[in-house]
Amino acid sequence: MDQPMNQADMTFDAKDVQDNKVMAALSYLGVLVFIPLLAKKDSKFCQAHAKQGLVTFIAAVLLGFIPFVGWALDMVVLVVNIIALVNALMGKFWKIPGAYDLSKKFNF
Fold first, then answer.
1. What angle do the packed helices 44-63 and 14-25 form, to 10 degrees?
2. pTM, two decimal places
3. Which sequence spans correspond to the domains of the chain?
4. CB under 8 Å to 12, separation ≥6 — which residues?
């Protein structure tokens, strides 16, 4: 089983990054987060992005139930997801404030 991510674990193999950039980007497209989460269990880069994407997906769903303020915050989550998606396509990993810390708790 994978260990939770920590600061020392945030380096990625260049081949892993190159081969999985597009799949990692799917992590920030709503329900599509489950594709890299389940299909790329062997990719540390994909899993890091997918776990963050899962946190933002859950946050967006929960915020969607709160009228007005929640919907406005959903727009913030959308912008954050776009930034993270672009970073994934560029082969980078951005630690989303708050989401990164929660994503470290996922151990699958």
1. 20
2. 0.87
3. 13-101
4. 44, 45, 48, 93
